[in-house]
Amino acid sequence: MRRALYLLPLVLFLVLGGFFARSLRPDYDPHVLPSAMIDREAPQFDLAGLKDEGLARDALKGGPVLINFFASWCVPCRVEHPLLMALANREHVPLYGIDYKDQPEDAAKLLAQFGDPYRRVGLDRDGRVGLDFGVYGVPETYVLDSDGHIRKRFVGPLTAEQVDKELLPLLKALRKS
Amino acid sequence: MITELGHFALILALCVAVVQAVVPLVGAARGNLAWMEVARTAALVQFALVAMAMAALMHAYVTNDFSVINVAENSHTDKPLLYQISGVWGNHEGSMVLWVFMLGVCSAALALFSGNLPPALRARVLAVQGMIATGFLLFILLTSNPFLRTWPPPPNGRGLNPVLQDPGLAFHPPFLYLGYVGFSVGFAFAVAALIEGRVDAAWARWVRPWTLASWCALTIGIAMGSWWAYYTLGWGGWWFWDPVENASFMPWLVGTALIHSSIVVEKRNTMKSWTILLAIITFSLSLVGTFLVRSGVLTSVHAFATDPERGAFILLLLAVAIGGSLTLYAFRAPALKGGGLFAPISREGALVLNNLILSCGCATVFLGTLYPLFLDAVGGPKLSVGFPFFNRTFVPLMVPMILAVGIGPLLSWKRGDLLGALQRVWAAYAAAVVAILVAFYVTHGGPILAVLGFGLAAWTGMAVLVEWADRIKLFRVGFADSLRRAMHLPRAAYGMSFAHFGLAVSVAGFSASAFDVEAIDTVHAGSVVQIAGYELRFAGVARVPGPNYTADQASVEIRRDGALVALVHPERRFFPLQQQTTAMTAIRTNFLSDLYVALGDGDEAGNWTLRVYWKPLVPWIWIGAMFMAFGGMVSLSDRRWRVGVGARARRMAPALQPAAGE
Amino acid sequence: MTGRAVPSWLAKSVFVAFLLLAPTVRLLAVEPNERLADPALEARAVAIGATLRCLVCQNESIEDSNAGLAHDIRVLLRQLLLTGDSDTQARQAIVARYGEFVLLKPPLLPATYILWFGPGALLVLGFIAVLFWLRSRRVSTSIDAPLDAQEQNRLDALLHEADR
Hints:
The structure holds three protein chains of three kinds. By secondary structure, chain A is of the alpha/beta class. The N and C termini of chain A lie far apart (59 Å). Chain A has helices spanning 2-23, 75-89, 104-114, 128-133, 160-176, and strands at residues 46-47, 55-56, 65-70, 95-100, 120-124, 140-144, 150-155. Helix content of chain A is 40%, strand content 18%. By secondary structure, chain B is of the alpha+beta class. Chain B has four domains: 1-165, no CATH class; 170-370, no CATH class; 425-515 and 625-632, no CATH class; 519-617, no CATH class.
């Protein structure tokens, strides 16, 4: 019994090491928070549009959609931009943008320069809609199902791997149901 | 060219470290004196090589050699010289070089100042140090090499994070690292003792100066970090229970426990395997801290953003160092049998209580820091653990220990008279009551916990004084006699008194933060802000250029009762290279309280946000810490440790031989 | 020690970079124009805000942070209080958006029993362990039993020998 007690520190350390090893896995990022609104209805919003039409939540029902929060001052948004273009043009994913805490002119310039993947863009000048969604940084991308419920959130710029392994399969599954 | 020399020096250092790790260990096992002595030479050579590497890296920074990737990513020609130098350790790769440099310093010091150690023990201790150096030098050379070049060199660098361009931050890492790495000496002693199978009073006496020195450095390092956060971050906080702060606090807590338990080993030849375990755990926590900061598994404002590959390497280092030493402990520690008995109520008993509470405190901080990680690994909810947790668990835990600090030194060894001790400190009760009443009155009945905190601080401080007065028999014998006793008290006694008194001072500072007063206002030229009996007149803002920034510098006159007390200049600095703004708060201190003035946003009309705090007793937090470090240094200077214990043992050994032969 | 993210333009590190590059970073926390006119409501807002984490700063409450998001949540909180929400309701509204992570004080759930009760349990366990240790040492090194007759004779004989 005595001897076993002396093994305790080592055993505890091995357990700790196991936890550390687990936390080193590639898809673990302590900065990424899961959305608190998964499977809940997306918050109500009705925003003025960057182009002609505005963007309202109820108008998005009827099929799975993507809502992408972006801004002209957000550098990582530019990193994911080509991916968004591909999603919109090649995969024909319904992609809607919300311009977060930004000047409309700057957003327009950004889209003119790099291309516009969004069917419509809403202007969230003061960030209130972002707050209601639980946005804590840009870019963030939300997947909504046909009933307007939030199914998944991607924090940070989308990667090709996330698109292939998670986003597209999820959209396919949502379209079927 | 010099960079390549530094690179080469690092590689050579690795080879020497391997030799240092292997040869003396074999020599000690075989009793080969020559091989054992290799340890000292190897340690000195390794230190010289690592120092060269460090110098080479500094040279690259100071000469703005942007063909070196590390310099290009972290430096800039406009940076002032002090930050050219301190920028060396303001990034991951450079700070690792600082780490092995400190390790070299410790090994070299061991090689030079361990004349009183038996050769076998010294050889083993240095061998363990060599193993640690090997691991970290490999880590640097394989994953974090600061000497890699790029061609063509960029015209200029990315610059140092503006937040790091501050003298306090320049010196905080060296002290901190000296502390972290210094505990590797205690670790090495522990492992060496386990290999030898012997822990005795002599061992404890040899180890204590090294652990004490590391503890002093760590105390200073943590205090500097806290003070820097206070004056830089702009809203007067000085401890956030941030994971990296906790990573430095945990080794400090068990390091304190280690210092105290090694006293018991030294005086009473007991608590040996526990002390060995503590020595292993203290350095292990330093290593775990290194892992947490550099692997990216925890979120922290401090963390170097490094990739999980580096994290995996460090985890491997941890597995070998901690796993190896704890395995050795599991098999060898049971053989360490203890000696002296003691009653639960005794000086030893108080030290056991001290150890128990400090260890629990460390475990609490550990639990709180890592709980989000644990939860995530088992698929639990995503939660965060903030300061409310630590305030509710750690703080109450420490209270009984702080109470014991006053009483413990008054108890005698083996069997103490608690009742007698409690009676002898009647002055401490009086002081506590007075402090509580005064605090209650002055703060108009403030938060009860804070008021009790003052009482606790007063109690402890007075108890320390009573203990000293007791020792010199103040008021019981003539004054001259007391004076003579005071001058002949061992330095270690004064060290203890200073350190414990420093704790009391800091506790007072902690408690006082409940009484901060703040005033946030929009001001323009000529506005006056009233706070805590002071009048602050905002004179206006001027634009002042700096070497690599432009600053909006405000002038604020501080007056009391109409008389000008000070003119302060809080600033906001904008660094165009990084597009970042930092605050330079202006603090006016009279060592009893701080007037803390920070400048906020302004608009074109000349309206600025001004944030003023009056923080009573906050300087005492760092003054107390300095007292603690000073106490440690006074203890270190005690000659008793330098008088050859080994020499005495050698003299005694021949005397013992005939008796054994009888 | 502090260090900032080395900006690499790949996924995760970039996320940290964007937090630092947000240009609306203001330097001080609660601004005069944010404060509510009613001091009681403002005090409630500050008290609740002190328990809410600033999600982009790490280990600061929204009351102590200069980030844009902290400002937004402070404003939202005050609006909620103005519309008559109780403290609990206001806090819950923020948690509904951001999850329990936003609470600085981890809630007491079965998942956090170990966290909250661990320190106390460890102290008690440690205390018991120390008591056991003290007792066992007393037992193992106490020499209570007196010598029996045979041992006493042997002892006398040895002593006799030494005296000679």
